[in-house]
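== Protein entry: sequence and backbone fold ==
=== Local backbone shapes as whole numbers ===
==== Amino acids and backbone structure tokens ====
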Amino acid sequence: MTYGGRRTARRRRVGPVATLGSLLLLLATACTGGSGDAQETGQTKETAEGPIVVASGLDVTGSGSVRQQLIDEWNRRHAGSKARQATLVELPGGADQQRSQLLGALQSGSARYDVVNLDITWIPEFAEAGLISPMPVAETGAAADDDRDFIRQVHATTVWKDRSYARPFNTDVGLLYYRPDLLTSAGIDVDKQPTADWRWDQLYSSVKTLDLNPVRSDELAGWTTQLKQYEGLTVNTVEAFAEAEVELTDGTGRYGSSAAELKKGLDRLLERVDRGRVQPAALTSDETASLTDFVEERAVFLRHWPYAYGALADQMDPDKYAVNRLPGKAVLGGQNLAVTADSRRAEDARALITFLTSRQSERCLLDAGFAATRASVYGSAAESCWPRVAAALRPAGDDPKAAATGEGGPRTQGPDARAAYIRTLGAALTEAVQRPRTPYYGAFTQVLQSHVHALLAEERPDTAEAADRLDDALRDVFAGR
């Protein structure tokens, strides 16, 4: 499916769009979820046989597959009901490939998915196309109280045109990691480094004190991030735009910026690159490469996601890294669980989603390295992870014995540091911003990446000219042209 070719809001049949590998996966999933003829046997969506099929991307935390463990816990709790068993299908490839596979499967009916784990930026597109169903709204009672426990900004990612189409599963937000050892060796007071109100100017000041001016990728830089031409570049750009108070769209996906506003945002991004003395390799770096540069002492500061906290424990001594909120604005990431419009198991699918996003399940996700979506999980009275799930996971948090003795795993920062990290993460989520909400997000991010990456690669970038070109392109994108 292409953005320019779709004008109807409802779902329609299309020809094959998947690769051979994707088609094989979808055929296998169709067998797992029951044949496409089942609807014609008199079964209703709620009474169809076969497992509840959940489609999701791969777990990037290295946690021991917490999503699968949560599915297993649900299955144990419904061991007496074959009809309520669930199965997880993990889609291969990156986010763009997963999106294409899901769109192809749901539009063609080639796979019987009941629940889809969608990137938060995909909700408007899937909702507008009629591929996912709105969630029931509870005005009062326990269900309403439960919904209000979701962090407000995070829950807003499930909404399109005033209707919620999903429940928040795991979230994400940009954080700032830094090297206390390198700062201390330069005579910089580490105690005055990132606080709740830390600003980019203070980062620039530290970089200036360090007298850093990297030319080659093997030299120490002020900071590094993800500026490769992919979604990481979109995130970094939107964060710079947000700090410059540049809003690209309104709540209905209509373009609301201008060339002059875009210039302000592009200037702010270039300022971060120049004054922050960014690692030259950042222009080709994704999450893995930027994390490696930080670990291997090629950057003092690092913009990254929460799962990096657990990854660093496996690669660095605990006194060589620290984390706090990102200066300025941080962008939300994450995934939401939605019921497909064609699900024959809609009632059971909603019950499964309620379980997977419960307080206990969200605590499991946090312990595994994800960011939880519920405010209560970050409080002192948070409920514990399901015991059998906790036992099955590789601990992403701290083992007090291992921290003290160095036995049984990496020497971590300890429970106090992890508690501080969790407080920091919870606070960052409450003030995070969203990327543009639009059913044309796929086209938008490709256009933005192309224009911004070309600007960053220029020896003498002209932000005024780049803003004019970008403004023209975005007007077309958000109009669906």
